């Protein structure tokens, strides 16, 4: 049951591939809270993903767009305004991909053409979406824009590889564009740094299940789930957070500020005794 936190608001949700996707849960929660939305994903995701099921369930139009392609993005914002009958109040960037990670290339042996692709898809696309919305004047004043990030932007997680650079850039774009969109339209731009979450993109990272359980043990509140991330996004899209902008917001059960956790320490001791 929703609380009408997004009643009367219109928005675009990118990145819902299957029911595990964080964006899938965000789309469901936004509609539950009274928003009208369009859904978007890369044209290739239409073939192997399940986004059509979500579109039917939420009665939301699906507008395919490669987030690195400016013409696709113009079409996305244009069609969204036409379908929903006005400018957007929010949009979510929930897009990430690395060929180097997918193909298991070590960080010390990257194929740099692929790295450029990763940065384009996972970070620059956020700027491309923002620039398209800005130039088309497609956002209402006091709108809210979110991108999803990960703590590897600040701390080193060896197997996260070049995606760490992508997330650093993503967070930087939120700060830089947040200035311009804020001064012109009072639009706020933030990133949410989410706990490891079991999704297609997440589980593509080598050693993901160890990373997941380590973070879960170290965080006092445990890992944040995709559903909890969706709750946080709803709050950030709502009018309750109108002066929060240019921030990277940690949604990680407290992980970022931990030094040592007794739970993790005890688990390590137990393992050593078993040896
Ligand atoms: P996911 O695999 O469900 O979502 C990634 C989406 O990016 C997919 O829907 C995919 O089709 C889309 N995409 C890839 N290339 C695209 C392109 N060129 N144009 C448009 N869309 C494209 O996985 P998840 O985990 O829901 O990822 C969503 C976001 O959350 C990503 O930015 C990811 O880095 C971030 N995140 C994920 C965490 C995790 O542990 N799963 C933790 C922290 C952040």
How do the strands and helices of this protein lay out in sequence?
Layout lengths: L9 E5 L7 H11 L3 E5 L2 H6 L2 H8 L2 E2 L7 H15 L3 E6 L5 H4 L9 H25 L2 E11 L13 H23 L2 E7 L5 H4 L4 H11 L7 H12 L10 E4 L10 H13 L1
Parallel strand pairs: 1-2, 1-4, 2-3, 4-5, 5-6, 6-7
Helix pairs in contact: 1-10, 4-6, 6-7
Bound molecules: 1,4-dihydronicotinamide adenine dinucleotide (NAI).
Number of domains: 1
> How many helices?
11
Order of helices and strands: EHEHHEHEHHEHEHHHEH
Number of strands: 7
In percent terms, what proportion of residues is strand? Answer: 5-15%
Strand-pairing-aware structural class: alpha/beta
> Main beta sheet, described?
7 strands, parallel
Q: What are the segments in which pLDDT stays under 50 over at least 5 consecutive residues? A: none
Radius of gyration: 19 Å
Helical coverage, percent range: 40-55%
Model description:
The chain is an alpha/beta fold and 275 residues long. The protein has one domain (10-274): Rossmann fold (3-Layer(aba) Sandwich). Helix content is 48%, strand content 15%. The protein has eleven helices and seven strands. It has helices spanning 22-32, 43-48, 51-58, 70-84, 99-102, 112-136, 163-185, 200-203, 208-218, 226-237, 262-274, and strands at 10-14, 36-40, 61-62, 88-93, 139-149, 188-194, 248-251. The chain has a seven-stranded parallel β-sheet, with helices on both faces. Helix 1 (22-32) packs across helix 10 and helix 6 packs parallel to helix 7. The protein is globular, with a radius of gyration of 19 Å. The N and C termini lie far apart (50 Å). The mean pLDDT is 96. The structure holds 1,4-dihydronicotinamide adenine dinucleotide. 1,4-dihydronicotinamide adenine dinucleotide is lined by residues 14-15, 17, 21-23, 41-42, 45, 66-68, 94-97, 121, 148-150, 194, 196-197, 199-202.
